[in-house]
């Protein structure tokens, strides 16, 4: 067998092996993308289920309040009927109070109907620190790398404030996994002050996607390269979308300042600063006990 023939055989074998390697690599990446899509679907279903359970819980709570208001209204009406026989002037004043309480009861019923008809996401009742840890576990199981740090002295929150914080955290992590994919790292930090809270969620979704789609460090660097114009655009751009709007509204409801934006070459950043969260009840942030 001549050297030229051996060389041709070797080259043919190398081409065959290279083709097989490329086919195997493409199939492997397809399997990864399929698993990624399945994990995203699973997370979406779990989050949707939690939201629906939360809606039902809030409806039950408001319904209980409305039933108590109506029961109290009936009791007052019966008392006014008996007073009308002996003291008409007192009965008139009682009737005026009944009208006011009737309006309150009607408002409670309207809240029940509003939440029942709306399809907006509402969390399970009063999620707390354990709920956040459960959320971290679910997201890690789905392929998101979650690192959590906390500083300062934690204080007890009003249920509505705790719910708002949980939802902002949940939406931010879900977006990080959705847009960054498997292997994305999310860094969550809570910094407690005397009366407030600063929360920050940073992810490296852009870099994670570049790592998955690149075969070398140089290719990763090329995919994540950015210019000063990209920095300026990131600083001035206005991020829109239903999820971002809902997070911003939740923060503003408790006196918070919400910001979200792209970090060029790296990923996405979400922050919410609540200066007076300790005393905020969704209307004001004043310590009424002073």
How would you describe this structure to a colleague?
The model is unreliable at 120-125 and 286-290 (pLDDT under 50). The protein is α+β, with helices and mostly antiparallel strands. The longest helix has 84 residues, at 3-86. It has a domain at 127-289: Histidine kinase-like ATPase, C-terminal domain (Heat Shock Protein 90), CATH 3.30.565. The chain is elongated. Helix 1 packs antiparallel against helix 4 (159-180), helix 3 (129-141) packs parallel to helix 4 (159-180) and helix 4 packs parallel to helix 5. A hairpin with a 3-residue loop joins strand 4 and strand 5. A 5-stranded mixed beta sheet has the order 1-2-3-5-4, sandwiched between helices. The protein contains 8 helices and 5 strands; from the N terminus they run H-H-H-E-H-E-E-H-H-H-H-E-E. It catalyses: ATP + protein L-histidine = ADP + protein N-phospho-L-histidine. One of its GO terms (biological process) is phosphorelay signal transduction system. Keywords: ATP-binding, Kinase, Membrane, Nucleotide-binding, Transferase, Transmembrane, Transmembrane helix, Two-component regulatory system. InterPro entries: HATPase_C_sf (IPR036890), Sensor_HK_TwoCompSys (IPR050482). It comes from Cryobacterium melibiosiphilum.
